[in-house]
């Protein structure tokens, strides 16, 4: 399905007319519009519709859920759904031809018009040469039957995890059997734990389950296997899914899925060295994110965005923290970065938190399959109201917090110690997250995170004053404007913020009073009709510019590039009202030099245009002629 067309002026007007004068006034202020008499509602409506600087997706993202529901009801749309982004997308989809509705969020990927294109691009997208990820996904998706993607995700990923731990166990067991004459005991759990391998009790071993995959009791057998593994491996307590016996899960299809996953080696040493499981797991997470839309976006940040954050921050050694960690992608990419630069697993200590219970369990599994030790708190919990790491001061913070969250409980946290730069508005958590990150940074710590574009320019509810205080405190190191269509979960434009507690520490050059702006909106490539990704070259370019600017050893010399990057001083930012949108600072791209003289080029282009006019006239005459024949025959 092609992305929705822009809303027509009539559709935008009908949407805006559902809002109160106070809300329209705040929107006009947010986008910096001149509306004349501010008391007249239509003045605000007209100014918003006429302005080319207003992104309607961003505008809708600023509204409360109740306002979006009222708009849907007035426009004859379904007002159901608790997630704001679902309602936003429903309204934006009015721009599709004939007001066509998008496919259901739980529709199988194979049922989506773009599925074929995505499956062609996906192996390259995930950087894999495995050759079977897409095949495995397609086969598994066919077995989904009447389960939606949100439920089926845990069915599949739980089995993949079980196959992995069983493969690793069986390989080490074979080694212990070969060394039995030397005193090795293949049934001693400590023999496995000493090698960082999960002990798998007999009833949970994959061979036992696959032998009974065709039995009607297979669902209960899998649940029992999950219980047994948790019982004998305390680090997995309350983590694994145990819903395979439920009536809604077709046991014949479950058996087929077990046979399918059983055909692939995942946990033996050779496949562990190639990170086969990690790559299959990541592939499935991304496909579930695509199939689920917003729901998937709650736990999945696109790989290229994570990689860019990590490459820019360069977390070589120290404490890495993500207070809204989703499925743990930031941690995994950080470990990969360390290993790719000569470090080893364990050079960084990982701390995280996640409020959604199923996503928290997903993160625990995702890290466990890679042998990554992480402190994700004793349980799932909200970072604002139940901070699991109150005393943590992190060297690196990487995060993708919920955009424009209006239901974060701000009214109950007005006196919180974290709000050093101003009390964040109760209707938007963006600057609560920013200040939470700052609060948890070590004296020389750095943070990189994703936020909605509105965070760079909003002046409503005191956000502008908070942003100004943070800039004047010399904390904002770099701002990156990202291209659209990177995320499965939202059409709201997003950006990257990078904060540095100490811009004059000895490791890097003194950057006090400076901020780097990068406009990366033109980067990336379309991997299907609706999704874009940043290429490795894009990531290297942006990260290289940032690291050169801040003075990383061996990163080269930094230079401003018109239309792309600009190092701005505090006084320059102040002159722009502390708006941090990169486009305000980088200027226009330099025009390419033309070897062809202007006169010759003008004559050539004029001739080409004349030829195109002539061809257009010929085609019009031919069409009229054919229409006349049709009329005569009628």
Defining key terms:
25 helices, Rossmann fold, 3 domains, alpha/beta, 634 residues, Ferritin, globular
Overview of the structural elements:
With 634 residues, the protein is α/β, with parallel strands linked by helices. It folds into 3 domains: 9-93, no CATH class; 131-291, N6 adenine-specific DNA methyltransferase, N-terminal domain (Ferritin), CATH 1.20.1260; 293-584, Rossmann fold (3-Layer(aba) Sandwich). Helices cover 45% and strands 9% of the residues. The protein has 25 helices and 11 strands. It has helices at residues 9-16, 21-30, 41-50, 56-61, 65-74, 84-92, 115-125, 133-142, 149-178, 189-193, 206-211, 218-232, 251-262, 269-273, 276-292, 294-297, 303-313, 329-340, 357-368, 430-439, 463-472, 536-550, 570-575, 583-586, 598-633; strands at 318-322, 348-352, 374-375, 394-399, 441-452, 476-481, 494-500, 514-519, 525-526, 532-533, 565-569. The strands form 2 sheets. The protein has a 9-stranded mixed beta sheet with strand order 3-2-1-4-5-7-6-8-11. β9 and β10 (532-533) form a beta hairpin. α9 crosses α13 (251-262) and α17 packs across α18. The chain is globular, with a radius of gyration of 27 Å. Mean pLDDT is 82; it is low at 96-131 and 294-299. It catalyses: a 2'-deoxyadenosine in DNA + S-adenosyl-L-methionine = an N(6)-methyl-2'-deoxyadenosine in DNA + S-adenosyl-L-homocysteine + H(+). Belongs to the N(4)/N(6)-methyltransferase family. Residues 95-127 are annotated as: Disordered.
């Amino acid at each position: 399905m092609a992305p929705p067309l822009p809303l027509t002026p009539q559709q935008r007007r009908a949407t805006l007319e559902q809002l109160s004068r106070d809300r329209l006034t705040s929107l006009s202020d947010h986008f910096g519009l001149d509306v004349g008499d501010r008391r007249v509602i239509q003045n605000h409506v007209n100014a918003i519709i006429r302005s080319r600087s207003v992104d309607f997706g961003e505008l809708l993202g600023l509204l409360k859920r109740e306002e979006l529901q009222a708009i849907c009801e007035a426009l004859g749309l379904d007002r159901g759904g608790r997630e704001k982004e679902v309602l936003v997308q429903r309204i934006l989809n009015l721009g599709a031809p004939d007001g066509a509705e998008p496919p259901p969020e739980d529709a199988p990927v194979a049922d989506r018009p773009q599925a074929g294109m995505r499956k062609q691009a996906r192996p390259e997208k995930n950087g894999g040469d495995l050759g079977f990820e897409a095949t495995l996904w397609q086969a598994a998706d066919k077995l989904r039957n009447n389960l939606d993607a949100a439920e089926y995700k845990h069915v599949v990923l739980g089995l993949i995890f079980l196959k992995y731990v069983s493969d690793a166990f069986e390989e080490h067991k074979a080694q212990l059997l070969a060394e039995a004459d030397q005193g090795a005991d293949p049934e001693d759990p400590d023999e496995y734990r000493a090698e960082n391998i999960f002990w798998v009790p007999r009833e949970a071993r994959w061979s036992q389950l696959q032998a009974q995959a065709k039995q009607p009791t297979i669902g209960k057998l899998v649940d029992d296997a999950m219980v047994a593994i948790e019982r004998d491996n305390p680090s997995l307590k309350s983590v694994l899914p145990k819903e395979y016996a439920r009536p809604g899960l077709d046991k014949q299809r479950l058996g087929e899925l077990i046979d399918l996953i059983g055909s692939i080696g995942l946990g033996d040493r050779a496949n562990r060295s190639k990170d086969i499981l990690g790559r299959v797991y990541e592939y499935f997470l991304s496909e579930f994110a695509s199939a689920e839309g917003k729901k998937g976006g709650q736990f999945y940040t696109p790989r290229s965005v994570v990689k860019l954050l990590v490459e820019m921050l360069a977390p070589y050694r120290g404490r890495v923290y993500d207070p809204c960690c989703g499925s743990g992608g930031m941690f995994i990419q950080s470990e990969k970065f360390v290993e790719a630069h000569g470090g080893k697993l364990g050079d960084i200590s990982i701390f995280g938190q996640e409020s959604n219970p199923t996503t928290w369990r997903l993160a625990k599994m995702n890290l466990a399959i890679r042998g990554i030790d992480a402190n994700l708190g004793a349980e799932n919990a909200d970072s604002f109201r139940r901070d699991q790491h109150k005393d943590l001061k992190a060297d690196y913070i990487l995060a993708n917090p919920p955009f424009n969250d209006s239901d974060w409980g701000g009214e109950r946290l007005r006196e919180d110690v974290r709000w050093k730069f101003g009390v964040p508005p109760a209707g938007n958590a963006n600057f609560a997250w920013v200040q939470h990150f700052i609060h948890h940074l070590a004296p020389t710590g750095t943070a990189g995170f994703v936020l909605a574009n509105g965070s760079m320019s909003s002046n409503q509810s005191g956000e502008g004053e908070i942003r100004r205080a943070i800039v004047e405190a010399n904390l904002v190191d770099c701002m990156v404007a990202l291209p659209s269509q990177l995320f499965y979960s939202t059409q709201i434009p997003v950006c990257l913020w990078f904060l540095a507690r100490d811009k004059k520490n000895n490791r890097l050059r003194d950057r006090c009073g400076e901020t780097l702006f990068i406009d990366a909106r033109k980067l990336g490539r379309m991997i299907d009709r609706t999704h874009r990704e940043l290429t490795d070259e894009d990531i290297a370019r942006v990260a290289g510019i940032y690291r050169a600017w801040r003075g990383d050893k061996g990163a080269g010399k930094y230079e401003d590039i018109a239309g792309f990057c600009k190092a701005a001083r505090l006084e320059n930012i102040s002159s722009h009202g502390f708006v941090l949108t990169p486009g305000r600072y980088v200027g226009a791209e330099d025009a390419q030099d033309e070897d062809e003289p202007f006169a010759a080029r003008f004559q050539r282009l004029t001739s080409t245009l004349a030829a195109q006019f002539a061809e257009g006239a010929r085609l019009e005459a031919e069409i009229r002629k054919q229409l006349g024949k049709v009329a005569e025959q009628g």
